[in-house]
Amino acid sequence: xxxxxxxxxxxxxxxxxxxxxxxxxxxxxxxxxxxxxxxxxxxxxxxxxxxxxxxxxxxxxxxxxxxxxxxxxxxxxxxxxxxxxxxxxxxxxxxxxxxxxxxxxxxxxxxxxxxxxxxxxxxxxxxxxxxxxxxxxxxxxxxxxxxxxxxxxxxxxxxxxxxxxxxxxxxxxxxxxxxxxxxxxxxxxxxxxxxxxxxxxxxxxxxxxxxxxxxxxxxxxxxxxxxxxxxxxxxxxxxxxxxxxxxxxxxxxxxxxxxxxxxxxxxxxxxxxxxxxxxxxxxxxxxxxxxxxxxxxxxxxxxxxxxxxxxxxxxxxxxxxxxxxxxxxxxxxxxxxxxxxxxxxxxxxxxxxxxxxxxxxxxxxxxxxxxxxxxxxxxxxxxxxxxxxxxxxxxxxxxxxxxxxxxxxxxxxxxxxxxxxxxxxxxxxxxxxxxxxxxxxxxxxxxxxxxxxxxxxxxxxxxxxxxxxxxxxxxxxxxxxxxxxxxxxxxxxxxxxxxxxxxxxxxxxxxxxxxxxxxxxxxxxxxxxxxxxxxxxxxxxxxxxxxxxxxxxxxxxxxxxxxxxxxxxxxxxxxxxxxxxxxxxxxxxxxxxxxxxxxxxxxxxxxxxxxxxxxxxxxxxxxxxxxxxxxxxxxxxxxxxxxxxxxxxxxxxxxxxxxxxxxxxxxxxxxxxxxxxxxxxxxxxxxxxxxxxxxxxxxxxxxxxxxxxxxxxxxxxxxxxxxxxxxxxxxxxxxxxxxxxxxxxxxxxx
Length: 750
Known about the structure:
Elements: H1 2-7, H2 9-34, H3 39-48, H4 51-59, H5 66-73, H6 80-85, H7 87-90, H8 93-111, E1 118-123, H9 125-145, H10 154-169, H11 185-196, H12 201-216, H13 220-231, H14 234-249, E2 251-256, H15 266-300, H16 305-332, H17 347-391, H18 396-399, H19 404-427, E3 450-453, H20 473-478, E4 483-489, H21 494-501, H22 508-521, E5 529-531, E6 539-541, H23 542-555, E7 561-567, H24 571-580, H25 601-607, E8 611-615, E9 625-627, H26 628-631, E10 632-634, E11 658-662, H27 672-678, H28 681-695, E12 701-704, H29 712-725, H30 736-745
Parallel strand pairs: 3-4, 3-12, 4-7, 7-8, 8-9, 10-11, 11-12
Antiparallel strand pairs: 1-2, 4-5, 5-6
Helix pairs in contact: 2-15, 2-16, 2-17, 3-17, 4-17, 9-22, 10-11, 10-13, 11-12, 12-13, 15-16, 16-17, 21-22, 28-29
Protein name: Integral membrane protein
Transmembrane segments: 281-300, 312-333, 364-385, 406-426
Pfam family, one: PI-PLC_X
């Protein structure tokens, strides 16, 4: 071999080049295996981009997509607010994540060539379980809502009727639990309309009189029996039965044939071709060539073993350099999206897909750099060992074992000193921070804007039915919320419900039936609770929830938190709950005179009294428990659409130091789809500025639903920045003329 190389120098160059190229190919294969063919890679990319969370917080509420979504939801017999607000209950992020992980495994099987078709697999079992729980709790909530109405809950009746119609369509005969709510003629007509949606258009005219007549006399069984024979074709009925069967088994499998002709799947097909080529041809050939080339290089290098280490090291270093150069070129080249989004997608969905792809490419290239670093380190080690081995006699300082401990100590000491001093040298000392900003410490409490969460206890995280926030209370505080609007309640006893029903227009039989239902689906629990209207639809124990707020405050000593309680619990019992939660040392006592200026945030923080508590009804007896409307004013809160929002006076009048801006839509419940529009930074700023001009006071609390959707926090921060730049724009002491202007601007003539 030595003779061959000496006779033909080009043979040695060829061997070296083959070794470098084949090793580079093996490095690329290692990158592909640890990224494109690794399930953890995809899962981490989705987590890095918060893909599952962004689906709820950005894609679903994108204003560009909500008209179509609302149009579809309006066709259902259940209020759309009930559906959208409970999406995270029916399909919570963890369930969506589990579905994603399962689908990732299917994609990898396809890319590896284990399957000829890409299978989209959806596990319905957790969704079905959540829907069942939601329907039970929602029914309890709907029935309890009747306590405030003068007529039965017709919407709940139509929902149940539609569920039974679906059973009939699927070939299942509902033998019990038929709804028997008495209907007016108008309600019977509306229920008939709901059933007619299941009937082919050509059959509706002849069938409608029979169905409506049955519903007029309350005969639901006859109405369903009339609809069933003509509702759907045998083919669709068979498909529905198959779907129900699959759902009961827990899995619904759809198999999609992947072909290059299908544009949306062409990129997946190309990726499959590349990965199979790598696995079946390129990687095995590179492994054989690399082993042969390195063996030849070892045998062709003259001299002892120590001289043969250095050429191998240079091969590794060259392969590392080639890999790094490839990564550099890929980063410099404009790389388009691998998967394009349809033109019909809303912008937020396109952004999400683009961000996920960019993160995936970035992680892939980062992995390639890591592989190059490993190759380079291995090569450098071989080169250094060979060189030191050759030159050991001339380097006694580095090679003498007696100097090892001293060198180790010196290097370690330098590393430790550098680790301790470098951060200080780079960042310097930290400025004082109040309420998350160094600029707010000398601002008064009644001068700053703060983000408030409406019905902060009703969260997806705590499994409320009809939640109005997604994270739990601590999660909202971590996300920047500093004002929590909470509702305190006692669990209603069935006899209390019966007393209220006795004053309604319900028949005695219906009252007894409703009371019996409530005893089953909404059993009372003793104690004090945080609930949203009905505790059966979700409840948190009051004292433990307050204790969590106190723990958060102690862990964040530069923050001030405000609670505004819709107090369904008496003041004395509420005071006892705060004491039980151990909050006595944190509670701030407002000045008894509501016209006095509030202290600066820095003073409140230095004094340790950083929890301000207001009530909607109570005013004491505890000195820290004050009626909010003595100190503050608000806007209306019953807006049914974003366009209805106004600055009209509501509770508290027009001349208070604190200003609560109710900035949410309530149309049959929270409107998740509207949150993307309502909570947009510009929308919040525009309304805040408008109401400030008309009231002559700065907005202090901006209360929103779904506080983590949109950018209401960004609007709050911008408001505070504006006030800092224009100090004195909102004078606390106002002249009578200015007050009159504010009252006239906020008058109903608006």
